Amino acid sequence: MHKYSRIFLCIMLGSIGLHLPRKAMADEALQKAIQLTNSGKYAQSIEYLRRSTDRRTQPTRLYYSGYCYHKLGDMGNARNVFLTLVRTYPSSREAQMAETFLKQMSARSTDDISTTQNAGQTANNIAAASNSSGKQIENNAQVNDDSDEAPSDLAGIPDTSKIYFSVGEQGHMYVDASVNGRPIKCMFDTGATGFTLGFNHLRQCGLPIPNGNPQGANSGGAGRAVPIWYMDVNLKMGPITRKIRAKVQEEMSMEPLIGYAFMKGLKYEIDSKGKCMIVTKPSHSGSASQDNQLYDIPCKMISTKAIVPLRINNKTIPAMVDTGSNATIINAATAAGLGIEIPADAPTEYAGGIGGLTTFRVVEMDLRFGPISKQSFPVRIGGSAGNAIGQDFLAGYRFTIDQDKSMLRFYH
Predict the structure, then answer these.
(1) Positive or negative: CA dihedral 196, 356, 6, 327
(2) pLDDT over threshold 70, residue 135
(3) How many CA atoms lie within 13 A of 317 on its CB side?
(4) In DSSP terms, which residues pair with 270 in a beta bridge?
(5) Which residues contact 59 (CB under 8 A, 6 or more apart)?
(6) How far apart are CA 411 and CA 57, in angstroms?
(7) Residue 123 pLDDT more than 80?
C-alpha cells in the first residue's frame, strides 16, 4: 500500500463546517455514495451504500448511512446506525464522529421538548438578546470579516499579547476561547475569514439559537453551500476580546473556527516550537526591520486571507497561508494549468468541509516557499477552493504576517 494511502486528511479551506473523516479506499459503490452525499442526494446515497460489500469499509459505510438518514430527518434509523457503529467499531475514527452526532441528537430531543413548552418565551428572549446586541454594536467597534475598513476597536486591545495553543493530531492549532463570556475550545484557522460555529456549540455555551430563515450561505472546498445565520458576539482569545459577527451553521462536528478576521489590524507571529502566537499592535511592533530577500516573502491580503507565492516544479502560483489545513493543496484548475499529470496509481483521499467531501489525489512534487525547500513533497490535488500552504509544510517554523509592509516574515 502506498505510504500516503492511509493518511487522514482534515482540510480547513475557508470556514469549514461538517468534518467527515475518510480513508483512501478502492470501493466504487462507496465513492459513488460520497458523490451523491455531496450533491445532497441522500436517499440515492443510501442505496449505493447498501450495494457496497467490502468489509474493510464497513465503519465508513455505517457512518455515511447514519449521516444520510440524519439529513433526511429519519432520526430513528440515524440513531440505530450510529449506535451500531459505536458498539461494533468503538476504536474507529468514524465511531468518534458518530458519538458526536448521538450527543447532538440527544441534546436536540431535550431542546425540542423545552421549545414546544416555551416557544413564545424563547422567541421573545432571542429577540430581546438580538435587539440588545444591536444597540451595543452602534456604540462599539465590530470586526466584520467582509469589510476592507480598518477596525476601530484597537484602542481597547493590549499593545502586546501572547496566546498559547495546543497542536492536534493532524497539526491543527487549538486555543482556549470564550463566546459572550462562556468558555469553549476553538481552532485557529487563517484559511477561514470570520468566526464560524454551530447550533450545538451555542447550546454547549448556554447561548440562544438564531431563529427564522437562514440569512446567508457558506461554502468551502467541496463547492456546495450550507445555510448560515449571523450573530454578533464578544469573542475572546487570550487577553484579546473583540466584537465579531459570527456565522452560525445548524451543526458542526468539529470545534468552532476562529478565522483571520480576529487578527484584523494586528500583527501576529506564530511560534510553532513555542506553541504560542505573539500579537502586537502595528504601532508597538518595534522598529522596522530591514527587508531580507530570502526570509521576507511578498504577501497580498485579499479580504482577510494572506496570499503568498508558492513555487511548484519551478513555476509560481498564489497560495494562502492556511493554519487550519494539515495538508498543502492545489486545486484542480491550477493543477491543470500547470500541466501536472496525476499518476494512475496516485492515492485517493477524502477531506470534509463545508458542503460535504472533497476528493484529492496525492502527488509528490518539489516545492519552495521563501527559505523552505522540499523535494518529493506530498501535495493534495483537488477541490474548487484556493491553493493552500498547510501545517505539513509550515510545522516547526516561526513566522509573522506584516500587514503594513505586505510581507510574510520568517525568523532566522
Answers:
(1) negative
(2) no
(3) 23
(4) 277, 399
(5) 85, 88, 89, 92, 93, 94, 95
(6) 45
(7) no
